[in-house]
Each structure stands twice: as structure tokens, then as C-alpha cells.
Design brief:
The chain is mainly α. The protein contains seven helices and no strands. The protein is globular and about 55 Å long.
Length: about 180
């Protein structure tokens, strides 16, 4: 009954060649009444990074109930780091949202908190992108006026977690991150 109170369910019928794109962390089940082949994959999108953060958090905290915690955590972390490195170079016309940016920065700065439960014994591998990604994220966090990283988690849990948050002023962020756009030879 508790599940019915908070969740709606839908059925999607897929035929040969059809595919489904779901938001990160979407609860789903597959039923194949005839022999077939199905595969899944993950992709990351800056606009839905707040949903990715929630899904990765759940993989860490509630692994005994989930099946996605076995995804390659190093691949996910490296991809998230590279997304953060791209932020200073994005066109000012691309909207960015507060909750999504906070989520991205939290996953980069506190990356150990997002290692899936089944991979806990593994250490986060050094990467050439790690320090630059963390520096950019620290700068974004300062731009957003966040003084305490712990408050990011509190803010993310507040209100509707499915909403990306308010759009931020791209021009001001672009200027704030200017030093990261300078190429060194």
C-alpha cells in the first residue's frame, strides 16, 4: 500500500528495434514473454545530474535492494569529472540549473561517498582529471554561495528532488569560471 501511495506505474510495450530512455534512478522492471535480447546502458546529462546524484546515492546506501550498484563506478566518476571540466567552456546559451550543478559538484568533491556498496573495497583510482575537476567544482560551489559542503546534501533533500532547480545566471557563471578557460602551453 505504501508503494501505491507514492508511485504510479506505467506499462510500455516495446517491439523489435524499439528502445526506452529513462531518467537516472528510474525504478523499472522488464518482462520478456518470448525469447529475445535486451541490453541496458547509462548516459549522463548535465540537466539531469540531480537525478544521477540521487541514483548514485541510493546505489551506495541501499545496495541490497538495487541491481544497478554493479556498474563501473570508475567510468561514472571519470565521466562526471569530465562534465565538470566542460562547464567553463559551455555556451552561455545552454541553461544550467542550481540543483543539477550542486549535485555534479558534490559527486566530484565527495566522490568517495558515491562508490557503490559492492565496490567499497576498491579505492578511487588517481586520474589526470581529478584535481582540475575538483578545483572547478569548488569554484562553482563558491559561486553558488555555498560555504559548507554538508549543506549541499541538506539542500538536495529539501523540496522536490525531481526538479533541476532555478536557472542560474550563465553570464555571471561564465565570468566567474573565466580562469579555467585560459589554455596553457
Amino acid at each position: 500500500e505504501e508503494v501505491h501511495e507514492f508511485w504510479d506505474a506505467e506499462v510500455a510495450y516495446l517491439g523489435p528495434g524499439d528502445f526506452v530512455i529513462q531518467p537516472p534512478g528510474q525504478v523499472h522492471g522488464a518482462y520478456t514473454p518470448v525469447e529475445g535480447l535486451a541490453t541496458g546502458a547509462s548516459f549522463f546529462n548535465l540537466a539531469s545530474m540531480h537525478l544521477t546524484e540521487r541514483a548514485r546515492y541510493m546505489d551506495r546506501k541501499k545496495a541490497e535492494f538495487l541491481t544497478n550498484q554493479t556498474h563501473a563506478y570508475s567510468y561514472a566518476l571519470e565521466t562526471i569529472r569530465r562534465i565538470s571540466i566542460a562547464v567553463p567552456h559551455l555556451s552561455k546559451r545552454i541553461p544550467l540549473y542550481r540543483r543539477s550543478l550542486m549535485s555534479l559538484c558534490l559527486m566530484v568533491i565527495k566522490c568517495q561517498d558515491y562508490v557503490a556498496a559492492d565496490a567499497e573495497q576498491r579505492k578511487i583510482q588517481p586520474s589526470e582529471t581529478a584535481s582540475l575537476a575538483e578545483e572547478i567544482c569548488q569554484s562553482i560551489v563558491a559561486f553558488l554561495g555555498i560555504k559548507n559542503l554538508g549543506s549541499i546534501s541538506t539542500t538536495l533533500f529539501r523540496d522536490r528532488q525531481d526538479v533541476a532547480g532555478d536557472a542560474i545566471d550563465r553570464y555571471l557563471l561564465f565570468r566567474h569560471l573565466e580562469r579555467f578557460r585560459v589554455l596553457e602551453y
